[in-house]
Design brief:
The protein is an alpha+beta fold and about 280 residues long. About 20% of the residues lie in helices and about 25% in strands. The longest helix has 20 residues.
């Protein structure tokens, strides 16, 4: 059965693209979980690109949904993963004079419907290795380690393929963050759907402590299937569920994750009024 969010027909804008943002960091070469096999017959090897196979998979899923055949051809199979890796290495070489540039870099991978791949990057803050592959998340983390300020969006957003997949159509996320300064990169806005359910964050996947476990919004809530979300679910760090916006409490600890900053946490500072 088709996913309910994906069964709605819509006219795809001619300039629509798909993208993902990935972290390049030499520190990741030392973590045994950030390894992958470039081909089915090769042994896993360390990678400086955070969860690269998951980024390829999310791009391919979006390309398949929007029927971007050139993108599907580019990304499919072992060759698709090798193309992404070599493109990232070439970008680092051309931009930073080293294909194994050691400093942390955020790289945006964009692909047009005709399969044109574009990379853009910028330095990103260094983080400890533990931020990327936590085996558990603390309900009471050390106050000194908070990295986010969290708000609930007052705007309800209708789930659609543009929220389920990561595309260049970001109008709904821009609207949720419109009241913030562009420099407010440590502020996350939790997106809420018309049923009053938390969908996702404007920049991250959120995790809420509910009944003794970490819960991330389930797919039917309408949010993006992020790379770190997938990792957390596969490893049993979190489970899927419904989190109602009215149940999000002022001051509660929420963990957040994405493909550039890994896992970090913050406290909710603005909530939905309970009338």
């Amino acid at each position: 059965m088709a996913h309910p969010l994906l069964s709605t027909s819509l006219e795809v804008p001619p300039n629509l693209g798909i993208f993902t943002s990935i972290r390049s960091d030499a520190l990741l070469l030392t973590h045994p979980l950030n390894q992958f096999s470039p081909t089915p017959t090769s042994s896993p090897s360390p990678s400086q690109f955070y969860l690269l196979p998951y980024h390829r998979d999310r791009l391919l899923s979006a390309a398949q949904h929007f029927a971007f055949q050139h993108c599907i051809t580019l990304l499919s199979g072992p060759s698709g993963l090798s193309i992404l890796q070599s493109s990232l290495e070439t970008h680092l070489l051309n931009t930073y004079s080293s294909s194994t540039y050691p400093s942390p870099v955020r790289i945006r991978i964009s692909i047009s419907p005709n399969g044109d791949l574009t990379l853009a990057s910028a330095p990103t803050p260094a983080l400890p290795l533990g931020a990327f592959f936590p085996l558990s998340l603390s309900p009471s983390p050390d106050t000194a380690t908070a990295t986010w300020h969290i708000q609930l969006s007052p705007i309800a957003i209708e789930p659609c393929p543009y929220t389920y997949h990561k595309t260049t159509n970001r109008d709904m996320y821009d609207a949720a963050r419109a009241h913030l300064s562009p420099a407010a990169t440590d502020v996350e806005v939790l997106i809420v759907n018309g049923r009053g359910e938390v969908m996702e964050g404007s920049l991250t996947t959120p995790y809420f402590w509910r009944e003794g476990q970490w819960v991330t919004p389930q797919e039917s809530c309408g949010g993006n299937r992020g790379t770190t979300r997938r990792w957390a679910l596969e490893r049993g760090v979190a489970v899927e569920g419904v989190v109602r916006a009215l149940d999000v409490r002022m001051g509660e600890v929420v963990w957040l994750s994405n493909g550039v900053r890994g896992f970090g946490w913050g406290r909710v500072e603005e909530v939905v009024s309970k009338k």
